[in-house]
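Quick one, probably user error.
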């Protein structure tokens, strides 16, 4: 396996993760919904004023819970951006939905709001906006369309922890929202996620689905005398070991975010002069969105250009990676797609490259990365490289 002097990602540890895991084990309660789960729930509900949250074993699980709560049935249509992780669509496909893929916008990989209404049909049940890189989708027009057509909005906020839309926390705007705490995210628990329930219609059923289709939580709160099987569901809740790890991260959220934003800004300022020459495009932040510094990316001119950049950095021990492939062109779903061309989703699939960004990355390491990029795009090297790759 190749060893990189600068990896793409390195999980951050605050120092209390193992201590809290030990505390959880010593408590004698290491299955789900114990003291650390409750502390995490309280943190999110207090800091972001989410009405109700439930930790899950992954963001995929949170999305699957959302699909059940939305009562997605075979034949229903769900609008999903094509440029996203497979879980965004898969959670609804498992319920029998047909996916109607939305193109990305010219400005950033988020779905193109201007084309959204044309995708709505009498069979549409839900819209799933993805806040790519923690950058907010334009939620006001999405919610207006949802209200007009009586649709549910499920925010895929996997990358959007501590992100805001016009001052509102991402995940607090739609009827439901899903977050990820995978090791590549800003706040991590190895694997983990969270469902946010903003619509009180779903409060009780969400908890039942979370607890394997039982009213177990109501029983332990003393609200019912016995508990039993009352609905569909699964084992969506994480163990206390996962929650203990996550809580240690949450205690350091402000420090983590401050550091990541500083690194993101340093990248942007260092690469802006070269971007202004047209060598590549930098991320665009709409005025309605905050920047949670989840990832830093470049949009290369074409796929060949991106390959040169990735290979150049890799040769110097630096791991940069591309991201999603367009789901409408995927092996699994392309035959089910309605045939529309989604040019901007394909552009991001072919041209976007993510640069290393993690808490322990140093400014000196960013300087090294930027210097290599500047050297690659200098006139002499650029012309020679284009000629070489053009012969492949």
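Nope, works fine. Designed sequence:
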């Amino acid at each position: 396996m190749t060893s990189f002097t600068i990896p793409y990602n390195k999980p951050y540890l605050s120092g209390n993760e193992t201590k809290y895991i030990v505390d959880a084990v010593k408590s004698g309660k290491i299955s789900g919904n114990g003291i650390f789960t409750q502390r995490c729930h309280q943190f999110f509900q207090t800091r972001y004023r989410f009405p109700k949250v439930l930790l899950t074993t992954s963001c995929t699980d949170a999305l699957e819970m959302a699909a059940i709560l939305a009562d997605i049935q075979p034949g229903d249509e769900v609008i999903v951006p094509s440029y996203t992780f497979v879980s965004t669509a898969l959670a609804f496909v498992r319920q029998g939905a047909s996916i109607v893929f939305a193109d990305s916008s010219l400005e950033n990989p988020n779905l193109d709001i201007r084309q959204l209404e044309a995708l709505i049909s009498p069979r549409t049940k839900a819209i799933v906006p993805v806040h790519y890189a923690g950058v907010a989708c334009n939620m006001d027009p999405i919610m207006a369309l949802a209200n007009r057509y009586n649709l549910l909005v499920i925010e895929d906020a996997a990358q959007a922890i501590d992100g805001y839309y016009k001052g509102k926390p991402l995940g607090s705007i739609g009827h439901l929202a899903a977050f990820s705490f995978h090791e590549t995210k800003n706040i991590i628990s190895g694997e983990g996620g969270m469902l946010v329930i903003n619509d009180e219609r779903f409060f009780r059923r969400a908890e039942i689905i979370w607890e394997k289709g039982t009213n177990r939580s109501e029983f332990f709160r003393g609200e019912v005398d016995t508990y039993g099987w009352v609905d569909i569901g699964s084992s969506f809740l994480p163990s206390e070991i996962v929650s203990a790890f996550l809580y240690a991260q949450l205690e350091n959220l402000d420090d983590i975010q401050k550091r990541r934003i500083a690194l993101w800004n340093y990248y942007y300022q260092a690469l802006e002069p070269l971007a202004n020459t047209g060598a590549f495009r930098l991320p665009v932040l709409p005025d309605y969105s905050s920047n949670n510094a989840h990832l830093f990316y470049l949009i290369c001119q074409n796929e060949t250009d991106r390959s040169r950049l990735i290979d150049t950095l890799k040769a110097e021990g630096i791991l940069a990676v591309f991201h999603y492939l367009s789901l409408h062109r995927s092996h699994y779903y392309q035959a089910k797609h309605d045939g529309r061309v989604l040019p901007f989703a394909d552009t991001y699939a072919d041209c976007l490259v993510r640069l290393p960004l993690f808490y322990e990355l140093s400014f000196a390491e960013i300087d090294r990365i930027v210097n290599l990029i500047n050297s690659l795009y200098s006139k002499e090297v650029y012309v020679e490289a284009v000629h070489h790759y053009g012969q492949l």
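The chain has two domains: 17-250, 253-390.
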